[in-house]
Amino acid sequence: MSGGRVLKRAGVVLVALCLVFVLLTARIFSIQFFGFEKYQKKVLDQLTTESPVRAARGEILDCNGRVLATNRTVYRVSIFPNVIAKAENSVQISEKIAKGLSDRLDGVDYNSVMEHISHKTALERTVARSVNEETADNVLDFIKENNYTEMIKVDAVNTRYYPYGTLASHVLGFTGSDGQGLYGLELQYNAAMSGTDGAYITARDSMGNELPNSYEAYVAPIEGNTLHTTLDAYVQSVLEKEVENAMIESGAQNRVCGIVMDVNTGAILGMATAPGFDLNEPFSLNESALRALEALDLEKDSEAYRAAKNQLLLEMWSNKAATEIYMPGSTFKTLTCSMVLEEDAVIDLNERFFCSGALHVADRTIRCHKKGGHGSITFAEGLQNSCNPVMMTIAARLGCDTFYEYVKAFGLLEKTGIDLPGEGGSIFHAPTAFTELDLATASFGQNFKISVLQLICAVAAVANGGHLLSPYLVERMTDANGKVVYTHEIKERRTVISAETARTVCEILAGGVAGNGGAKNAYVAGYRVAAKTGTSEKIGDDASARIGSCIAFAPADAPEIAVLIVVDEPTEGIKYGSVVAAPYVANVLEAILPYLGTKAVYTEEEEKQLSLRVPDCSGWGAEKVAQTLTQSGFAYRFSGEGAFVTGQIPAAGSVVLREGAVILLTLGESVGTDGCVPSVVGMTAAEANQLLLNAGFNISITGARDYWKTGKTVVEQIPAAGATLPYGTVVTLRFAYDEIAE
Fold it and tell me: How far apart are the C-alpha atoms of 284 and 278, rounded to whole Å?
């Protein structure tokens, strides 16, 4: 081979080598400058183990700063299978670890620990996610005694805790095992409350052993924001008690829900669905759901059993007040009358209407709830007595198009926008298919569906002078340093009716409660309450089932709060909203109005019917008794000769009718005497009161609140007639609620 050809080949090789060198240099440059972070992360991932440090989730507080949701420290127990596998006598150590942990951890058995250990290449496996401090200390002692610090670890972690257990369960929602919100406010504001997780970064060599501490790093977490809600724990507890009572006493088959709202801001003070559930054990069925599951008689651990349980959990978690829709029935008549009054030319307030018991519309005859009809009544009486023909007549004058526009203006064709997930929307007639017949049935709240939230917002617009507001639950948010990072601004969606129209409707509704209207069971002594009841069919679901409801706001002359309770499918006794809902709405108002600072103003008659709670006089001297009981409005009598009170009848905490009430106090040794309880069933309140007081007994009243106005008679007494009891004992008299159809 000639020297020229050798040189030529050598030149080619040299050029090729130069090209390879250039390419390698370019690649190294690219890796160094453009891929540095990527490859650095790969190296670090191979050399380090990152243990996340969960950020403390923000708390949820009520409007007075009471803690509704917070965090508490629990402990996570984990093992390092790769380290265990490389240890001498790994089999014996594995067995000892499995036995030691299963003995100390509830719900963890030997085989499950061995299964974790079997993953020999795994760096870390969690054996128990949430153990208490005592158990954690026990595990730490086990680790120390056996020098297992490289094989077992105990970490402190935060978990969600709800101090009140079931309170506001459907509103607050809950978190999963990973700390992420799953329902309610926990889901709605998950991102704001989660914060940013930190981490412990530990370096390990190729054998999985930890490197010295100088190779460790800690990235501090950033705490989540705290929610300051509009909920009031006291109002919420009162509401929950009453919806629970309504559910039990009515035998409601499809739950009961209620809302308390500030009509001037849209703030939700209380929102409840009965039955509730334990927020600290959200994956455990409540008693009602457990009974439903047992009734299915499915084999436990079967696929059908698991599917049924999951379905019942979903139903249990569902916030009925926000997610479900229903036919409002006669409560909607409040809005129909507001529409008509706003259109000045439609009616005259002095005009009279005639109800024969039915009205012929298009090709149908639609009946009134009152057989035989109401006869000649005014517009106001038509609303107070919930007359369907009056509603259909005035709605027809309004016309389909105008009525439809008002339905839209009152927000019934749109969601309210409340800050909760899963809000339900309405089902209403299409505007192009809204017929004369549809108008007639819609005028009294049938053949369409809206949410409980939509109705209370619409009626609140009547209460507050015509302003449709967006409801809300979070007033503000603060960060870990207490700095306000968000503040809610009241959102008025639109003005629907004039203040004058609103005042007129309020007066009509209040007159019905104070007088003999259909909502009189919502009466509360000392307060002017405006209310409307309703009983609707479940057309399209179960035509034989009913929904009873009542919506009220107070004080009627300057409304502050609205209360709505909806009882779905009552089965016990009377199913009208006037019985299954109105009394419970009254109980809510009676409890929370004075709490919220609204002072009661009693008439002279109401003063006589007031009830008093008996104080505990134990250990009092005669002088203190005289001063305290006289100021409280009690009469009293002493027996015995001691210096201090040793006994009293009625017992402390008893509630008695103020008029004629006498507390019998024992000084020293008891010398009490007994009397025979007379029969008062069938008597009026005045007659029963007089007879029982003359016999030496005190009185308590339950049932109808207007018993003294309407001449009602006692339907039940407890104890029964003929019982021999100490003088001063309380005899409870029950008066029946009026069974008013709507």
Answer: 8
Torsion of CA 653, 656, 660, 661, to 10 degrees: -20
Give CA–CA dist 263/551, Å, rounded. Answer: 12
Beta bridge partners of 482: none
Separation CA 336–CA 394 (nearest Å): 8
CA distance 442 to 565: 21
**Across-strand partners of 656?**
612
Which tokens go with 159?
Answer: 């978990």
Number of Cα atoms under 13 Å in the Cβ half of residue 626: 4
| Residue 708 CA to its chain's centroid (Å) | 35
- 8 A C-beta contact, residue 577 and residue 330: yes
Residues 6 or more apart in contact with residue 101 via CB below 8 angstroms = 77, 79, 108, 113, 127, 128, 139, 142, 152
State the pTM of this model: 0.86
End-to-end alpha-carbon separation of the chain, Å?
A: 117
Using DSSP, how many helices (H) and how many strands (E) does the chain show?
25, 33
688 HSE (CA, 13 A, CB side): 30
- Cβ 333 vs Cβ 388: under 8 Å: no
Give strand pairing partners of 665: 638, 648
What gap in Å lies between CA 720 and CA 697, rounded to an integer? 13
Asked whether the beta carbons of 324 and 314 are under 8 A apart, the reply is no
Q: Give pLDDT tens digits for 461-498.
A: 999 999 999 999 999 999 999 999 999 999 999 999 99
Is residue 259 within 8 Å of residue 456, measured between CB atoms?
Answer: yes
pLDDT digits (tens, 9 = 90+) for 250-283: 999 999 999 999 999 999 999 999 999 999 999 9
* CB count in 10 Å sphere of residue 85: 19
User: Which regions of 629-723 does DSSP assign to beta strands (E)?
Assistant: 635-640, 645-649, 655-657, 662-667, 674-676, 698-703, 714-718
